[in-house]
Each structure stands twice: as structure tokens, then as C-alpha cells.
Amino acid sequence: xxxxxxxxxxxxxxxxxxxxxxxxxxxxxxxxxxxxxxxxxxxxxxxxxxxxxxxxxxxxxxxxxxxxxxxxxxxxxxxxxxxxxxxxxxxxxxxxxxxxxxxxxxxxxxxxxxxxxxxxxxxxxxxxxxxxxxxxxxxxxxxxxxxxxxxxxxxxxxxxxxxxxxxxxxxxxxxxxxxxxxxxxxxxxxxxxx
Length: 194
Prior knowledge:
Layout: H1 3-11, E1 16-17, H2 18-28, H3 37-49, E2 53-55, E3 67-70, H4 72-83, H5 95-103, H6 111-136, H7 141-180
Antiparallel strand pairs: 1-3, 2-3
Helix pairs in contact: 2-3, 5-6, 6-7
């Protein structure tokens, strides 16, 4: 998730303070991704360093809040980010995928059991997200969209686990068949008669 670009998007609506940006970010993302206020200020400092935002410079005392606004360069960066697809050309390092890949190649480990244990957990998690969706999704567009995204992501992982389980089962059956196959007959030695 690009906090940098999310903050630029919020600042494109007009000048805001750091704490205000944190609150608006959380509200607009359905309060699914809490944001540390320190992370907001660190990101704002970097954006200011890169000339993508400007501050009003009002940081005279502990009670004074520093306001930020987006620059023309910041608006151009935001517009480019919104229209640029994320790089999904290589698979992410997913801990679950790595576990199943390793389990499938470890002697004495039932990789299907590993896949099924994670599948059960993910289905339970999907049920919890579905209950949340039924409760609040109609009242909060951001939350509803975030929950839908999570449900689709979890569904895809469950489908991958099902496919992995089937592939592991077929591979183990093929190994069993190969172990049961009769050994090929060795050619007889040719007997030379005088």
C-alpha cells in the first residue's frame, strides 16, 4: 500500500494537518488499515523533501500544527500513480505458498495436511469478514470495498490451496504407481553355441 500516494490524494482536496490526514486515511479506507501518526509525519517530510508537498512552516510551539498542501509536481505524481497498474509480473513472497512448496518436498511431511489446515483457517476468516460485511458494509463505502477486496483475496488463496492439494495428491499417486510398477526385464545374455 502506498501511504505516500494516499496522502497526496488527500492533500489534493486542500491543505491539511498530519493528524487530520491520519484520521481521513483511516476513515476513507474503512478503518481496516490503521496508520501510525509517526508514519504520516515521516512520509510528509519525505514528500516535502521531494517537492511534492509544501508546508506552511508554522511549527513554533507544541500547540502549533504544521499544515501541508500538494504542489504541482505532487499532483502530477498522484495522477501518474492512479493510472499506473501495480507490478504483478512476479509472484509475491507469500508465507503460505512457501510453506506448501516446502512441505510438498519434505520427506515425512503430509503436505496435503498442511494445505488443509491453512484452508480451514482461511474459510473461518472468510466467514468472519462476511459477518463484518453484513453488519457495516452498507453504511460505509470504504469499509465495504475493503472487505470485498479481502474476501476476493482470501477466496483466491483458498482456490489455490484446493488446486495445490489436488496436484499433491496426483503426484503422490503417480509416485505410488511408479513404485508398484514391475521392474523391467533384463535382456537375456545371448548364449553362443559352438
